[in-house]
Design a protein that fits this description.
With 272 residues, the protein is α/β, with parallel strands linked by helices. 33% of the residues lie in helices and 28% in strands. Helix 2 crosses helix 3. One of its GO terms (molecular function) is DNA binding.
């Protein structure tokens, strides 16, 4: 890239950092890209760092030394996250979202890019230091949330299937007990999806008793993988027995009254 004005350089540096989170970028990369001195690049990064932190966008970490550089770590302050969650919950409490059986319709909300990005950034903030290698979820409604989280953590996504797909090669399958229906179900994961001893962050859209997540944990044992975090968008308050002990929820479903057509949600345990 030819030499450009400082204002344009600041815009391009910001874009580069936002699109490469959790990636160490050497100062020489920027210096050569803009044909500028490292001292000038350091001054630019100081400006970006101040704006990022002042506006709750994230942290800009500096690593000293010959192999050093800068790393952008997305971060959403808890106060901002709480305001965002409360706005989402007001929408989810609409009585028209009640489905037969007392289920809650969330597909449209979880299909909105901005909402997904907000939730993904919250999870990325919670699990910024878990040093995961991949983000895992169960098909199908958890997939958008997993991708949104993985985008901010700069990690690949692994999807556990209910049926083995021919296009994914040989797979490991296990039976698990669904926490809500108590039925025996099957989940499978391609043998090529994970390396041995991988560190896995599990993200899911909804949890009642936690049977599906418990199944994923058991499945990961077949790969000798390690669960380093569990994030749930909405947890139910009605579980008689929770099959998962340690997890982070962003919202909690506290009341579903089909007869009165009433839904109540509150912020999850992350905000406790």
């Amino acid at each position: 890239m030819s030499k450009i004005r400082r204002s344009a350089r600041l815009v391009d540096i910001t874009h580069e950092l936002l699109t490469r989170p959790h990636t160490l970028i050497p100062l020489t990369f920027f210096a050569e890209r803009y044909e500028a001195a490292k001292s000038s690049i350091s001054e630019d990064l100081a400006i970006v760092k101040e704006v990022f932190e002042k506006n709750g966008i994230g942290h800009l970490l500096t690593v000293a030394g010959a192999a050093g550089g800068v790393k952008f770590v997305p971060y959403m302050p808890k106060e901002k996250a709480l305001a965002e969650i409360r706005a989402i919950l007001r929408r989810l409490e609409d009585p028209d979202r009640l489905l037969p059986g007392g289920y809650l319709y969330m597909t449209d909300v979880l299909g909105e890019p901005r909402t997904l990005r907000q939730i993904g950034c919250m999870f990325a903030t919670v699990f910024a230091d878990c040093q995961a290698d991949v983000v895992m979820t169960m098909e199908t409604k958890g997939i958008p949330l997993a991708h949104a989280t993985a985008e901010f953590l700069n990690l690949p996504v692994v999807v556990v299937r209910r049926d083995n797909k021919v296009t994914e090669g040989s797979a490991v399958s296990i039976n698990y007990v669904s926490g809500s229906s108590k039925r025996i179900q099957t989940m499978s994961l391609s043998r090529r999806a994970l390396t041995e001893s991988a560190r896995v962050l599990i993200i899911d859209d909804f949890m009642k008793a936690g049977g599906t997540i418990r199944g994923m944990i058991d499945l990961l044992q077949e790969f000798q993988a390690h669960v380093v975090g569990i994030g749930v968008f909405v947890e139910s308050a009605y579980a008689e027995e929770r099959l998962v002990d340690s997890y982070v929820s962003l919202a909690r479903l506290t009341e579903v009254d089909v007869r009165e057509r009433r839904i109540r949600l509150e912020p999850g345990n992350y905000f406790a």
